Amino acid sequence: MSNSTKTDDPLYKIAEMSEALDEVIKEETYFEMPMDTKIGDLGDLILKSGPVNVEMLFGHGPNVFREVEMSEKFWQKDGKTVENVLDHVFHQGQNVVVESKDRCSVSVGDVIHLFSCFFLVERIGFRQIGFKEYMKLRDDSFSQQLNSLCRGDGKWRVL
């Protein structure tokens, strides 16, 4: 017989972590970043280190990202704010500006990942969302992607 306990079981540990994550999601606490927040030198450094990821929830579904590079012209501005960054990411994410053969343009319903925060692209502007709303959007997007693969009779379509 084994001397292992319930707490040694990997499935038990996963269940514990899942419960802990559920508690965090219920709390819905997140770092609020107002649109007029100046990003400063640290923000410049972070943005220059690589592209900004946009999750293409509207056109592709969860876990499909478009990497958006900031243009050189953007770095010449002083006093950049979060809103300036989001506007620039949206602009640079348009296929008429920088073409991407395997991704559609950044659209309403997509989520910009910036400074460990989530920003939803809305009809006019952007709105910061918490983790709980982000996960709901991802789940809804995945459901819509699955539904689009099915016909009304529940049989799979060949694309």
SSE layout and pairing:
Elements: H1 10-27, H2 40-48, E1 52-55, E2 65-68, H3 72-75, H4 82-92, E3 111-114, E4 117-121, E5 126-129, H5 131-149
Antiparallel strand pairs: 1-2, 1-3, 3-4, 4-5
Overview of this structure, please?
By secondary structure, the chain is α+β, with helices and mostly antiparallel strands. It has one domain (33-149). It is 38% helix and 13% strand. It has helices spanning 10-27, 40-48, 72-75, 82-92, 131-149; strands spanning 52-55, 65-68, 111-114, 117-121, 126-129. A hairpin with a 2-residue loop joins strand 3 (111-114) and strand 4 (117-121). Residues 151-159 have low confidence and may be disordered.
Q: How would you sum up the major sheet?
A: 5 strands, antiparallel
Low-confidence stretches: 151-159
Q: Encode the helix/strand succession as letters.
A: HHEEHHEEEH
| Cα-to-Cα separation, first versus last residue | 53 Å
Individual helix count: 5
Q: What is the 3D shape?
A: globular
Radius of gyration computed on alpha carbons: 20 Å
Mean pLDDT: 77
